[in-house]
Each structure stands twice: as C-alpha cells, then as structure tokens.
Amino acid sequence: MPKIVNSWNEWSRLKRVIVGRADGTMVQAPEPATVRDWPEDGFPKGTYGPLPQEMEDAANEQMDNFAALLEKHNVIVDRPEVLDFSQQVSTPDWKQDSMFGVMPPRDILLTIGNEILEATMSQRSRWFEYLAYRPLLQSYFEQDPEFRWESAPKPRLTDASYVDGMDFWEYAESFSDEEQIERFTKKKQWNLTEEEPLFDAADVGRFGRDLFVQRSTATNGAGIDWLRRHYPEHRVHEVLFYEAHPMHIDATFIPLRPGLALSNRQRYPMTDEMVKLFEMNGWKIVPCAEPALSEKPPLCFCSVWLSMNTLLLDEKTIFVEESEKAQQQQFYELGFEVIPVPFWAVGPFGGGLHCATADVYREGDLEDYFPKQIPGY
Ligand code: DAV
After folding, report:
1. What is the pLDDT of residues 25-36, one digit of tens each?
2. Domain 14-362, what fold?
C-alpha cells in the first residue's frame, strides 16, 4: 500500500499537492465575520454574487497552467470537487445566503506528518467548504493505511463568536491602519471573541517541530490553544505582526529553507520571543522585496503582498508570481532557482501560489530546527 500523505514543513521536496479551483467563487453574502463593499466593481455593501465569468475563466486558466507546471516537475496534482457556492447554507444556529468557493485549499487543510486536519474556519460562508475536499481525503484514506484523517471541532459560529457582528468592520474601518494596530492588533482583539476555538489552517507556519501560529481576524486564542493540545509533539508558538487586518500568515512570514525566513517588509513581527527564538537558533530573517502592484486588483480581498505568497518545490527551487520581478531577483540573490508562474488573475479568488495549494506529500521526516527554546514560549 502506498504512502500518500506526509509533510512536516514548507520546503522539503514536494511530491504531491492539492491545487484548488476558481469555479463558482462568490463575493460572499454579508455575515458577521465578513462584509464586502466594492461599489466601483459592482458589489456595493450588502450585495453578493459570483465573480464575473471572464475573471473566473482567466483564473482557471492560470491555475490549470500551474497544475501542469507542477506535474512537469514530477509533482502529482489533485483537484477538489466544485460545489454550488451560490446556495444558501444553514445549521441549527444560523442561515447564510452564500458559500465562498474552493480556490484556496491552504486556508482549510493543515498537513502535519501523516495527518490532514480540516480547520474550523471562522466564516459561516466557509463552514461547509470541507465537503469539496472530502472525495480526495476519502481516497487518501482508502489507499494510505497510515493516513490520519482529522477534523477540528465544527464551530457553532453563533453571534457570540463575533464582536458586534457586522458593525465591527464599519467601526474598525473608521480608523487609520496605524490606529487599528493600536486598538486591535496590540490587544490581539479584532472581530472574533474567545467563545470557541477558531482557526484557519493558513495561519499556521510549519517549521518541523515548531509551528508558528498567527493570531488574526480568522484565528483566535482558543484556536491556538486547541492546536497546541492537538499537536503534543510540536511546539506551538503564537505570533503577531504589525498589521491592521491580519488574515493568514503566508503573505506575512514564510520559511525558505532551514535557517532562512522571509518577513513582510511592512508587517514586522510584534512578538519579541519569536525574533529571539530565530536568532538563538541561527535563523536569519530577511525582509521581502517590494511588490509589483501598488494596489490590489478589483474584487480582491487579499493584499499586494501576495508577491511573497510563494510555493517551494524544494529548498533550492521556488515558484513565484511572474510579474513579481523584484521578489524573483531577491530569491536569485538568496541562491534559489526561480520558476515564474502567471497567477495574479487568481488573487480575487482568494490568494496566491501558496494559498492555492495544500501539501499532500513532501519528502523528509519530523526534524527540530530550533533546538534552543525559550521557557514558556
Ligand atoms: O495578507 O494579503 C493573503 C493570504 C490569503 N489567504 C494578505 C492575505
């Protein structure tokens, strides 16, 4: 019987990966976790609906091209199933007028060793997204006797899980970014309460035995506590960055190879212990290059910093968005072979090259890259 699932970090040689799909992605209906407001692009506040067909086609073309490129590099590519994301969904606790999509598997699937964990997610529109991956997970389960198929406790997501419901965002946006950092980031308190554990998989950075988990608008303290108890063999470190609306760590702080990490040049780490831990263990943290775009594309909820949202084929080879020339140059100078991939059409569907993928198999075992630790961190 083959071993299908194995991945302990972000840089060992990739052999199998899930690449999402743009099909049917929605500008989500309003909900307490998320309010979209893009009047210039056809979606004023309160409205929702599928992203335009021509945008979807362009995104799918780039994703199919990326999948083919991965296969050319001897990586097996699996794709999820598309659901009708325009449907209303409900649990006994709430009704939500639309789902979201299935472009970014990284947000929901966390592969650690021989386990894939379905994250809780923190948006009602994304509560049922795991269903799109179930056919794949089921087939891994049938083929790989060592695969551990795991799901975090499904959250209730009642109004008690959110601060002031949809009003929170209007209130937050009335302040400048700097003020929001003072009011929310420094207090580690944005839209989510501590009612129940909530996390997105994309807030977790996998560095072997050490996992760095970002407190964010998608991941609360209880979520990090749940992860800590779930991975007793790992050291789970909470991290925080200088950023008004943190959501997912992979356009903020990423490992490149043992001893080298890339940090967003604007969103510096605000956790002193984290910086000390990297220094003590001989890791270098370099600030990323300037992004190619000065503004995010229409209907995109991710930032221009998708420039650093990259995928490592192995610890010497990196997939980088094609127009991100400065970022590519930096990787060359750091000793990487760079493989450019056109991918900005995918941004409005939920992210870049790292978001659009979820590891299934990377070579290698669990290793300790931070043998010196700080007690209590
Ligand atoms: O920082 O622009 C990128 C990651 C979304 N999955 C950002 C979010």
Report:
1. 999 999 998 889
2. L-arginine/glycine Amidinotransferase; Chain A (3.75.10)
